[in-house]
Each structure stands twice: as structure tokens, then as C-alpha cells.
Write a structure and sequence with these properties.
There is one protein chain. The protein is of the alpha+beta class and 477 residues long. Helices cover 23% and strands 38% of the residues. An eight-stranded mixed sheet has the order 1-3-6-5-4-7-10-2. Strands 11, 13, 17, 18, 20 and 21 form a six-stranded antiparallel sheet that branches. A hairpin with a 5-residue loop joins strand 14 and strand 15. The two termini are 55 Å apart. The relative contact order is 0.12.
């Protein structure tokens, strides 16, 4: 007797767990379900018209049509909870609820997606929604169905990229398994009939946790769940109808980046300047106005640059033999000052060390000019010179959040600053420019767009790199 009681307790607990599979739908009435179908359908129609996608618009119209059909079918029972409806009406309401969940999952999946990605996801969602909305498909009470697939932080997965690493997913829905029976089987089935098995880790009626393996071939795949159900306590488990959804396997996202690095370098520039002619120019050999003066290099170069520094000098003498004699150490000459930016002219040789004697102590006779000389100086400066830029295309770079780099050749020995700019090229062929940025030659440059697409220049090792954007499309892993 005791064992019979224990069996009854086990049976009741198992049935209670199993019957919770439609708990979510049981919480709403027919009128609430109809309102949600209409709202989701309206959203999809609007999105389809905005994006120019007929598939998205058609999905919205299917939900609106299903809402109208359910309203007519439920008639005066529209305000009853779904669980209070008779079996035939309950099947219709549960079918509509399953379709609603598929539609809501699609609306969520295309958040953050490009127009191209949204269209790819609509290909996966449209078939499932059309099947769920169709009244020609035979439905049974408490039928199993897949409402959505979640992976990581993405709660509405409809697409994966080829060569994506295997990942754990959660298949959500209703009546997906029976805890009294063996684990369900989950698999992907391609258009050619090829099947890819998923490793099922755990399951309950509302969800299945499984590992989705790497898929190498792109295409539309059917995600199938095959499960069993124990109809009666004293009989074994029997096969349930197939629960399915669709996943679009897309080619790996391919990005590339055009990057330009413009350097400005310091180069030494040398030029010779004539300072002028100086000396005694009268017959009495007295100093003239050119003697005993300081000439600034700035007044000689006449380009407004104070960067010039004298590095060498030369002069040319004119000594008439019939005018000057007694050229000795106390004569006059010139001196390049220590700052390299001025010259003292007509200085006395002996009291001022470092000067160059040109004119001696003249004893002039007769008339005419005395001892004269002309002075030239060679000056040098560091000049900023723009150099030829380096352009490089980094790509193709596969996948979101991927990085690729290369190293450039040195531009010069003394770089001053760099200007970096670039253009990011997305999988759909669109181009987005990175704003140019200039920094000194010692400062790395990082330019990032809002979506995470980044270019980086590291002057210490002459390396440029690019990191592709974050995956912002909620429905693609």
C-alpha cells in the first residue's frame, strides 16, 4: 500500500511540473493576447516600410491577420484566461501565443543591426512565423514549440557567423521536454538535408541548454527539437511532434581599414648669407660708420626666423699697397658671438679675444680708400618638413572585435609629429571616416568610432593596427 502512495505522489509531482509548460500563456486573456499581436504586428509593418523590407512588413501583416482571426474565433470568450477555454479554442490561442513570441523575438533580434543584417534575420524568422500563423498546420493540445534562442547576452538569436566558436545556447519555448523521459535531441538541418547535432546539457519543459558547434557552411538552417512525452503514468514515453525554429548561418563579417599616417620631420637647412663690406674708407685711416657695431643674423637672413645659427664664416680682403702699411696685431676685425646669432664688426683684435684680425694699424698716405673687407657667414637651422605619407589597407579582418596590425618603415631620423586618419569599410560596403588626429611624435594616437571600430598608431614601434566594431546586432552571434 505504501509503495502505491509513493507512486501516486511521484506521478502528481511530475504532472505538476509538466503542466507548467504553458504557465506564461495561462496568465493572459484572449483580449490581451490579441492586443499584443496587433501591437507587435504594427511595429513590424512600420519597420518593414521604413527599411524597405517586404519580408519584415509581411511578418507584421501576418501577426495582424492572426489577431483578427483569433478575435473572431474567441468571440464572446475573448476576455477569458487562455486556460479556461475549451480544447479547440485553447489550441488556437496557444498557437497565436507561440506566434506572438516568435514575432517579439524577431523585433528584439534586429536591434542594433544594419539593414543588411536585419534582412538576413528576417529570412530566418519569416518561415517560422508563417508556419505558426498558418491555420492549415495540424495542432494538438500542449504542442511543443520553440519561441526563441538565447546565447550569452543575446536573448533573441536568429543568426550565427560561419567559423564562430562553439557556444552554449538556450532554446526557450513550451513542452520542449518531459522530465520523466530521456533528454530531447536538438539538431540543425541544412537545405541539403545535412544534420549537425547539438550536445544537450540539460532540459525542462520551457528550455533546453545545448552546445551549438562551429558551423562552417553558410545558409538557412532548421533548428529541430525532437522530444518524448509520457502521456499516461503506466505507459512509456511517446514521440512528440517536432518543435522547430530557424537559424541563418551567415558568412563571417569582413571589415577592412584604409589608414594614412602623415609625418612632419626636422631637417637641417644650411645657407650662406653676405653680411656686408666693412673697413677704413677714407684717406686719413680713421674709423668709419661701419666700425664698432654688432650685426644681428636676423637682419641678414631677412626671413623672420630666429632659428638660424652661424656655423662658419669667410671673408675677402682688399688691401691697396700704396695706402696701408704696418699691419699688426692691434688691428681691427670681426668676431662671431657665442650665441651664433650676431657678429661684432670693427673690433680691436688684441683686447677682445676670439676676434679675427683683418685690418692692421694703417699708416695711410695719399688719397683713396683704405683697407676694406667683405664678410659671409654660413648659418644652419632645423626646419620642419612634411614628408610623404604612408598609406596602408588593413584587411580583410574577419569577425567582430578582431585586431590586425602591421609595421611601417621609419619616415625620418627626427620626427616632430604625426597626423593619422582613416576610413573603415563595413561588410555591406559602406564607408565611415575616422576623424583625423595630430599628436607629437612621442604620443600614441587612438581614434575610435562609437561602434568600437578603432585605428591606432604607436610611434614607438611604428605600428598601425585596427580593431573591428563590437557586434551590436542583438540577433547574430
Amino acid at each position: 500500500m505504501i509503495w502505491i502512495v509513493r507512486l501516486i505522489i511521484v506521478f502528481c509531482v511530475s504532472m505538476a511540473s509538466f503542466e507548467s509548460s504553458h504557465a506564461q500563456s495561462a496568465l493572459i486573456t484572449g483580449s490581451t493576447l490579441i492586443s499584443q499581436l496587433e501591437a507587435t504586428g504594427k511595429t513590424l509593418v512600420s519597420q518593414g516600410e521604413t527599411s524597405g523590407s517586404n519580408l519584415i512588413r509581411q511578418m507584421g501583416e501576418q501577426l495582424q491577420t492572426l489577431a483578427a482571426q483569433l478575435n473572431r474565433t474567441l468571440a464572446d470568450q475573448v476576455n477569458k484566461p487562455i486556460t479556461d477555454l475549451n480544447d479547440n479554442l485553447k489550441i488556437q490561442a496557444q498557437r497565436a501565443f507561440a506566434t506572438l513570441q516568435q514575432g517579439q523575438a524577431f523585433v528584439e533580434s534586429i536591434l542594433g543591426c544594419t539593414k543588411q543584417d536585419a534582412e538576413e534575420l528576417s529570412t530566418a524568422a519569416e518561415g517560422s512565423i508563417r508556419q505558426f500563423a498558418s491555420d492549415t498546420v495540424p495542432w494538438v493540445p500542449d504542442f511543443p514549440y520553440v519561441a526563441r534562442v538565447a546565447a550569452g547576452g543575446q536573448s533573441a538569436l536568429l543568426g550565427v557567423r560561419t567559423n564562430s566558436k562553439s557556444t552554449q545556447i538556450t532554446i526557450r519555448g513550451a513542452n520542449l521536454s518531459d522530465p520523466r523521459c530521456e533528454l530531447p535531441v536538438a539538431q540543425l538541418e541544412g537545405g541539403s538535408g545535412a544534420k549537425i547535432g547539438l550536445q544537450v546539457i540539460s532540459s525542462n519543459p520551457e528550455s533546453i541548454v545545448a552546445v551549438l558547434p562551429e558551423v562552417k557552411d553558410a545558409g538557412l538552417y532548421k533548428l529541430k527539437v525532437l522530444s518524448s512525452k509520457k502521456r499516461w503514468f503506466w505507459f512509456g514515453c511517446s514521440q512528440q511532434p517536432e518543435a522547430s525554429s530557424a537559424i541563418n548561418v551567415l558568412t563571417s563579417a569582413q571589415f577592412s581599414t584604409d589608414i594614412e599616417v602623415k609625418p612632419v620631420c626636422l631637417e637641417k637647412e644650411s645657407r650662406e648669407f653676405q653680411v656686408g663690406g666693412f673697413g677704413r674708407t677714407n684717406s686719413s685711416c680713421t674709423n668709419n660708420a661701419n666700425d664698432n657695431q654688432t650685426v644681428s643674423l636676423l637682419s641678414v637672413t631677412k626671413d623672420g626666423s630666429n632659428d638660424w645659427v652661424i656655423t662658419s664664416d669667410r671673408h675677402q680682403d682688399t688691401i691697396p699697397n700704396d695706402h696701408c702699411s704696418n699691419i699688426g696685431p692691434n688691428g681691427q676685425g670681426y668676431k662671431i658671438n657665442a650665441d651664433g646669432r650676431s657678429i661684432d664688426i670693427g673690433v680691436s683684435c688684441s683686447p677682445r679675444s676670439g676676434s679675427i684680425c683683418i685690418m692692421g694699424n694703417c699708416s695711410c698716405s695719399g688719397s683713396g680708400t683704405g683697407h676694406t673687407f667683405t664678410l659671409w657667414v654660413t648659418a644652419q637651422r632645423n626646419k620642419e618638413v612634411p614628408k610623404d605619407s604612408a598609406k596602408d589597407q588593413l584587411g580583410p579582418v574577419l569577425g567582430f572585435g578582431s585586431t590586425r596590425s602591421t609595421t611601417l618603415k621609419a619616415f625620418c631620423d627626427a620626427p616632430v609629429r604625426y597626423t593619422v586618419s582613416g576610413t573603415g569599410i563595413y561588410p555591406d560596403g559602406s564607408h565611415q571616416d575616422f576623424p583625423s588626429r595630430t599628436e607629437s611624435a612621442a604620443v600614441p594616437i587612438v581614434i575610435a568610432r562609437d561602434d568600437g571600430f578603432t585605428i591606432e598608431w604607436n610611434p614607438s614601434d611604428l605600428r598601425i593596427s585596427t580593431t573591428t566594431p563590437r557586434n551590436t546586432c542583438r540577433g547574430i552571434f
